[in-house]
Design brief:
By secondary structure, this protein is α/β, with parallel strands linked by helices. The protein has 2 domains: 12-241, Spore Coat Polysaccharide Biosynthesis Protein SpsA, Chain A (Alpha-Beta Complex); 243-318. The chain is built from 11 helices and 9 strands. It has a 7-stranded mixed beta sheet, with helices on both faces. It is elongated. It starts with 6 loop residues before the first strand and ends with a helix. This is Glycosyltransferase.
Amino acid sequence: MPHIVERLRDGVAIEPEAAPLKVAVLLPCYNEEAAIAEVVAGFRAVLPGADIYVYDNNSRDRTVERAVEAGAIVRRERLQGKGNVVRRMLADVEADIYLMADGDLTYDPLAAPLLVDRLVSGQFDMVVATREGEGMLARRGHAAGNRLFNRMIDLLFGVGFTDILSGYRVMSRRFAKSFPSASRGFEIETELSVHALDLRLAVDEMPVRYGKRPENSSSKLSTYRDGFRILWMITMMYRALKPFKFYGAIAGVLAFVGVALGLPVVVEFIETGLVPRLPTAVLAASIVQLSVLSFVCGLIVEAVADGRREAKRLRYLELKSA
């Protein structure tokens, strides 16, 4: 147990000064030679005491050389995909506060100290930078998809974020080290947001300027391919975290179909004592049986999900808060 009193001054107990919090800036990169040096310099200027990590994801250009020249700590992740890079960063890097951004110069480094201060002063586990400005206006397809996914998250997991796909966010050590990442690609931001909502962690948002990429830099995000992956991730997380509602909805649909098919057969049997449409009767009974199985499955998996949620919560509580 740490000493509460370090020394005496004129007979008065003096508490020891708290050690400064260690901040790590995490920059996942793939073919970002056009911007990465300026990004590193920007974060170095506003967070001079922070460790700046550039994790290269098999870049085919001079991203690594530019990052080294800018003074960043450069490491590599061979598994392709942003989710794989973020999982490796959060596992390997030791810090009190983790600030994650992109290496494409779209996120404003000047907002970094404000994000860190908001996290510390508000005792939050994560603060997300909501994007505003010309960068969002220039990518209307991505902005529309972002609004759609935000609405889905609100309906399925509860209200908490207005920009779940933002790659600019700051996290506490507790959050970073207890986050059970499973994503491989750009769905990682969705997973981070849903994890916070599921455990009802303290989160906040702060608007920041979102700029355009440099002209000789291109986006790695595919509107349709990655949009489908994000949609699939939301569906799978809903199945894992809200299994009773997921399987209960399936059970309700099956029950409706089974009753719709079987009711005329039952009515006819009551009136005539005959079952002339035997295949329909068998099909209806089978569908209703599947409905019951789905309902029971939902009950069982819900208990498993509660146990996993409790384990994640205990893991979160085991870690020291900054």
